[in-house]
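Worked example 4.2. Below are the chains of a multi-component assembly; read each line carefully before continuing.
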Amino acid sequence: MAAADSPSAALRRRDLCSRGIRLAGKMRVDVVDLLDTYVERQGLDASSSVAAVEGVPAAAAERWDEQTGTQRLLENLAAYRAFRVLLAQMLEEQQEQLGEADAALGQALAAVLLQVSAFAYHLEELLRLERRGPFSEEVAVPPPPSNLGLFERKLRGLGVLRELAQWAVRSSRDLRQLAKLSPGSSSVPSPAESP
Amino acid sequence: LSLAAPPKEPVLMCRSNNYPKGFYCSWHLPTPTYIPNSFNISVIHGTREMVCEKDVFPKNRCHIQYLQLFSTVKYKVTLTVTNALGKNSTTLTFDEFAIVKPDPPESVVAKPVPNNPRRLEVSWQNPSSWPDPESFPLKFFLRYRPLILDQWQHVELSDGTSHTITDAYAGKEYIIQVAAKDNDIGTWSDWSVAVHATPWTEEPKHLTTEAQITETTSVSTSSFMPPPTTKICDKGAVVGSGAVAVCWTAGLVLAAYGVLFI
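Applying the procedure described above to all two chains together yields the following structure tokens:
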């Protein structure tokens, strides 16, 4: 088995980072399109402020440039696993709410869910390469509160998608930072930029 | 004599040209007050109040370092201007991503490509204010047109800092500019300084004299065949298949005239 710092592992890691960056870029474009569709179909105002939603991983990071490669991968993996659950919940609610009335929104949600799942798998591959296993258990995302009205559920969905769009941008940056690291140095912070 | 006036609502602008380090805000009054004014700026991100460090120059600007990245929480910037006769204020609310606008690309250079009459090679550099192009790569938009036309051609380039224009009009001077944008977020920069370039053209050959024609050619074709020093249809001057056909036709006509006068 190749060591994490072997030349073949370094090539594999670079390849995985490059592909991951492309996946994240495509995902972001699709999430932004989905956001537009969601806002329109749900009759929402695109500029609505949405409070932080319980269970939605926030993309915001302090001292982002000081994170290690492993931290980046673990945070990303936890986030996308959570989004996998959240999007599945949204899809189920959307189907219950609208049934076949809005197949386009359902299809768009399903397509993004697929990309999120694929990206989570991709991150697992990268972590396996860094020999950072076993991974933590799947995140437990609480179900949406049952007393939420329809409008609140729609706003919650808006919050989920907005945060996912931020993550898609953050993930491509995280993977670029990871790609800059020399093999075997994922536990070392990324080279910090001078202020 | 100008009358002193209370301040009108100031004009405020915020922008990040050095993402992900921070952003700056700058302001001005739409009309002068003719008396001293003081400016106070507050920046709030969620529940956190941030410090906007005033620049020494220009005085109507301050900059702030990001404490968080990738946040969905909006920034709220309020500028208050006060003088002896009153005060006024304005507020801007924006997302972290929305204000990202790089400076234009630098060191734009356009050069002809030897032996290629329709090509121009353009290169440029990332703006020096953009701190980490490796992790936050820029994409570019190039526009070019011949000076004699008003319509621009556009090319968007997702990587690299050079491009070869391959459809320039031969012999025409071009004006070229480049703009930059973060690959994922924000808006396009202003256009770079314009550069001018003309595609390569072959050096014009001198016309031969009558004496040279008489001396160097035979009786049968001498007067009307092109002398060796003159090339009517040089390969380098050929632009496309249409031009090749023209060259061949010219050659045939000349040969025909030569035959007529044998």
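Take a moment to check your reading of the output against the notes. The longest strand of chain B covers residues 116-125. The longest helix of chain B spans residues 241-260.
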